[in-house]
Design goal:
single chain; 4 strands; 97 residues; alpha+beta; Alpha-Beta Plaits
């Protein structure tokens, strides 16, 4: 198994129906504070005026850190909030140019 040790950056685009905004924000409030424990950082967080679109730029020290964050039971335990939000998520791996 290969372990990637170079930084990982991605952009998340979330499209949230108006009725799902409260659940989406509750999910974020629960999972975003976990990022530093996994060498993760929310570089930038943008939201449109009505709260139906959010863009996050997130980085991790390594792919292993990202995977550990994604698999953390405190994060996965909040999945129902994300599901209830009905948010459509797009994730784009990115690199500095």
């Amino acid at each position: 198994m290969s372990h990637q040790t170079r930084p990982v950056t991605f952009v998340l685009v979330a499209r949230i129906p108006a009725e799902g905004i409260a659940n989406f924000r509750a999910y974020e409030a629960a999972v975003l504070p976990l990022l530093p424990e996994f060498n993760g950082r929310l570089e930038r967080r943008l939201r449109n005026p009505d709260g139906t679109v959010e863009i996050h730029i997130v980085s991790f020290a390594s792919d292993a850190d990202l995977q550990n964050y994604r698999n953390d039971p405190r994060r996965t335990g909040q999945a129902s909030l994300l599901e209830k939000s009905l948010a459509e998520l797009e994730v784009f791996p990115m690199a500095d140019v």
